[in-house]
Design a protein that fits this description.
It is built from 15 helices and 25 strands. By secondary structure, it is an alpha/beta fold. It has two domains: about 280 residues, Aldehyde Dehydrogenase, Chain A, domain 1, CATH 3.40.605; about 180 residues, Aldehyde Dehydrogenase, Chain A, domain 2 (3-Layer(aba) Sandwich). Helix 2 runs antiparallel to helix 5, helix 4 packs parallel to helix 5 and helix 9 crosses helix 10. Bound molecules: nicotinamide-adenine-dinucleotide.
Length: about 500
């Protein structure tokens, strides 16, 4: 039997020069005032992918002031939705015209396969188009039943200046789940990408500029959580923060925002269970489980990192998942055959390996993998497809986010037990159920504590279907019409018709 499928590197397709990333503030490209820079080295190939201006308080303050001034001027917030949508649609067209250029840099900064990066960049154009459609259909309510002399109208207004802080695992996709929706609502933004994957966000700035966005509406500051992200979370001139990243940083941001009570929307981690009942279409389930755990090397908030399998089928099902795992192509992200690329950093790979070793020490067994992966021709950081069996609900690997290509297998006997194991995590992002029985599927879907429940599929997503987490997976929702609502304030206009109001002041 094949041990594993590994795609060696031919070292072809690398760019000749690193991308030079600068801040985009008030419509102008600029370096940091202190001249500081930072580099991102490709985790797969070890080459410098980008050299970037490293933001300080100076650039962050300037970007926030620019966004505030642009918002208050009405240059974007008070123009028609038709005019806003036109710019968003132009950005979408420009994204599509630049897919290849963006996908290469995204692949090298994240370590993800080139075919996947290409899909994410081109798919993001659709998010911009969908947001444009929402801009034009946003409306409030009218109340014509409050009495002959009163008309009530509820209007929706942009919330104001929004800080957008994004992670490294889906840099362009996650940015596009936030930014066009905030813009469609009429907000102005300050954006900070992860220090590990800054380039496609800076490159989007070029497209936004080309599309004719007024200066100051979108501002991009490159740099680290300290001081850039931190100031974006606490600054008095910011009205809202939308953040995707770890639960730990999400809590820090929430605390920083509390000083000014700004609105906070958080998309955080997950420990997403898939429950497989004995009557399921097991071949489809095994394929989806394999996809769910290895997609993006498991560095995915939606990773299907634990399965809960009915005892009667657990052994055969796990054997099939292991068989399929051996066929998944791990290796050089630049090769179009590769399905799983490199881990984001050596430190992160170490953390993933630590979870596996701790589970084994606690009595679990490694059914496949469990170690670093050598990819011929590359010195980068790769981890083997890994299946850990005999996992019990008390182990860290069963409850905490591993964020690597590591599947934990647990078993159950009854629906109640399956639900209790599935909900036994502080997270509540997504969950899945596999059964041919509609009653089983519906019962699980209603009792699972998760923002999304998939039945007989995994990780299907659409711009129309809103996304977000329960419990410590976050607060607020993205995409879908709820995704736009997050960026809107609601205001009631109460209007009296005629002079019918009885005087309050009476002369005694
Ligand atoms: P992270 O929390 O380390 O960093 C995310 C962003 O926050 C980066 O831009 C970082 O520079 C910034 N940051 C760091 N400290 C900050 C601070 N004190 N104040 C403000 N900003 C700060 O997360 P990561 O490692 O980049 O991404 C991985 C995490 O993201 C995982 O936990 C994953 O589950 C989560 N994630 C969630 C979703 C979702 O939609 N729920 C999607 C993707 C990733």
């Amino acid at each position: 039997m094949t041990a594993m499928t590994v795609i060696p590197s031919t070292q072809t397709g690398l760019p000749t020069e690193p991308y030079v990333g600068r801040h985009f503030i008030n419509g102008k490209w600029q370096d940091s005032a202190d001249g500081e820079t930072f580099e991102r080295v490709a985790p797969s190939h070890g080459v410098v992918v980008s050299r970037n201006a490293k933001g300080s308080e100076v650039e962050t303050e300037a970007a926030i002031h620019a966004a505030r001034a642009a918002f208050d001027s009405g240059i974007w917030s008070r123009i028609s939705a038709k005019a806003r949508a036109a710019v968003l649609l132009k950005v979408a067209d420009l994204i599509e015209a630049n897919v290849e250029r963006f996908a290469l840099i995204e692949t090298l900064e994240t370590g993800k396969p080139i075919t996947q990066a290409t899909g994410e960049i081109s798919g993001a154009a659709d998010l911009w188009r969908y947001a444009a459609s929402l801009a034009r259909t946003t409306k409030g309510d009218s109340h014509n039943t409050l009495g002959e002399d009163i008309l009530g109208v509820v209007v929706k207004e942009p919330i104001g200046v929004v800080s957008v802080i994004t992670p490294w695992n889906f840099p362009f996709w996650i940015l596009s789940q936030k930014l066009p929706f905030a813009l469609a609502a009429g907000c102005t933004c300050v954006v900070k990408p992860s220090e590990m994957t800054p380039s496609t966000t800076a490159m989007l700035g070029e497209l936004i500029d080309e599309a004719g966005m007024p200066p100051g509406v979108v501002n991009i500051v490159l740099g680290y959580g300290q001081p850039v992200g931190s100031l974006m979370s606490s600054h008095r001139e910011v009205d809202m923060i939308t953040f995707t990243g770890s639960t730990a940083v999400g809590k820090t941001i929430s605390a920083a925002a509390s000083g000014t009570l700004k609105k906070v929307a958080l998309e955080l981690g997950g420990k997403n269970p898939q429950v497989i009942f004995a009557d399921a279409d097991l071949e489809s389930a095994a394929d989806a489980v394999t996809f769910g755990v290895y997609f993006n090397a498991g560095e995915c908030c939606n990773s299907g990192s634990r399965i809960i399998v009915h005892e009667d089928i657990a052994e055969a099902f796990t054997a099939r998942v292991i068989e399929l795992s051996r066929l998944v192509a791990f290796g050089d992200p630049l090769d179009p055959r590769t399905q799983v690329g490199a881990m984001v950093t050596p430190q992160h790979q170490e953390k993933v390996d630590g979870y596996v070793k701790a589970a084994v020490a606690a009595g679990a067994k490694v059914g496949l993998g469990g170690d670093r992966l050598k990819v011929p021709g590359l010195k980068g950081d790769f981890y083997q497809p890994t299946v850990v069996t005999g996992v019990t609900p008390d182990m860290a690997i069963a409850r905490e986010e591993v964020f690597g290509p590591v599947l934990s297998v647990l078993t159950f006997r009854t629906m109640d037990e399956a639900i209790s194991i599935a909900n036994n995590a502080s997270y509540g992002l997504s969950a899945g159920v596999w059964s041919e029985n509609v009653h089983t599927v519906l019962e699980f879907s209603r009792r699972a504590q998760a923002g999304t429940v998939w039945s007989n599929t995994w990780m299907d997503g659409f711009p129309e279907l809103t996304f977000g987490g329960m419990k410590e997976s976050g607060q607020g929702r993205e995409i879908g019409s709820y995704g736009l609502e997050e960026f809107l304030e609601v205001k009631s206009l109460v209007m009296r018709i005629g002079r019918t109001r009885a005087p309050w002041v009476k002369a005694l």
